[in-house]
Inverse folding.
């Protein structure tokens, strides 16, 4: 009898594999599940089995019965819900679209900055992130022991040459430009820069800058002011207010820093502007004569101005993001808003 049970199990298993419609499922039910079906037939014969074999054979038979009934119920449900599904298809629904990537907010800001400067007649110049001390510091009038070197904590590269570093500003590109081309020069220099600084809501060890350099005959501080204010009004809106404060950079003299009225409080004073009503956006000044000398540009004929600012800061001011780290976490929920 055990043999018969196992033959019936194989038969049932094979049939189950071929059931593909409610019609063939009904055939299966009539053959095995109903009162006159194969399973009941075997169960009835259990009466004649010797008493000592009954527990084993009974158990096998019961397992097969439960298996066949469960499979029948499962397939029945499958076919019925399939039927419902076909009835529910809404052919007017939109297809599923793949997610579209977009340009990172920092790069969107950069594109806009560059397009404003292009309109003002600036070209774009770039150079490598890896620099040497000469282009990043020395030629820019930082003496070897000049305390201004401490203004920008530097990542030095371990190499046979001890003067390699990750540039701390894109001012190094100014030097490369002046070395390779005679004035007039009117360029902006975007790029990634590095400073060994503690990461916080306001600063990162790696960020982006755009610097500008304009050298020609009769270039004045008034022209520098005009360029920066024209640019800033394009970026931040014509109602924004600006102020120039005296400052210090080794490579410019005189030097200034530019502040914009705080976008959040409109100048009244708040947490973002540290209750001053102003936010610093840019460093600038007239190119220092020593820098011209280092690049063999005649100070009797030419004068020039330079400026530089951080792209992340501009992005934060324009988007209202108040923690710079959010720009680098690549959280799609943040990025897809821009
Ligand atoms: N290089 C300066 C900085 O990184 C900015 C600057 C550029 C200042 C040009 C003056 C002129 O902070």
């Amino acid at each position: 009898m055990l043999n018969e049970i196992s033959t019936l199990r194989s038969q049932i298993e094979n049939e189950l594999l071929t059931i593909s419609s409610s019609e063939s499922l009904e055939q299966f039910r009539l053959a095995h599940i109903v009162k006159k079906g194969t399973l009941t037939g075997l169960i009835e014969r259990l009466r004649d089995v010797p008493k000592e074999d009954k527990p084993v054979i009974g158990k096998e038979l019961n397992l097969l019965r439960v298996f066949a009934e469960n499979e029948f119920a499962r397939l029945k449900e499958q076919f019925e819900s399939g039927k419902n599904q076909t009835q529910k298809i809404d052919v007017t629904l939109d297809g599923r679209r793949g997610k579209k990537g977009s340009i990172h907010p920092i790069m969107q800001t950069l594109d806009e900055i560059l397009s404003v400067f292009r309109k003002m007649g600036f070209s774009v110049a770039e150079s490598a992130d890896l620099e040497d001390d000469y282009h990043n510091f020395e030629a820019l009038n930082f003496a070897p022991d000049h305390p201004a070197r401490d203004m920008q904590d530097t990542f030095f590269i371990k190499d046979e040459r001890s003067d390699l570093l990750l540039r701390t500003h894109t001012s190094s590109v100014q030097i490369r430009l002046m070395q390779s081309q005679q004035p007039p020069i009117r360029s902006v220099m975007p790029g990634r820069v590095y400073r060994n600084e503690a990461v916080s809501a306001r600063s990162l060890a790696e960020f982006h800058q755009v610097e500008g350099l304009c050298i020609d005959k009769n270039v004045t501080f008034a022209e520098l002011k005009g360029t920066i204010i024209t640019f800033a009004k394009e970026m931040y809106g014509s109602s924004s207010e600006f102020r120039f404060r005296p400052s210090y950079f080794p490579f410019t003299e005189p030097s200034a820093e530019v502040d914009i009225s705080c976008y959040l409080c409109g100048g009244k004073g708040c947490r973002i502007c540290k209750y001053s009503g102003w936010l610093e956006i840019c460093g600038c000044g007239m190119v220092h004569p020593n820098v011209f000398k280092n690049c063999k540009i005649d100070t009797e004929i030419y004068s020039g101005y330079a400026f530089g600012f951080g792209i992340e800061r501009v992005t934060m001011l324009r988007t209202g993001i108040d923690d710079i780290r959010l720009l680098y976490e690549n959280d799609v929920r943040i990025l897809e808003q821009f």
Residues 2-88 form one domain.
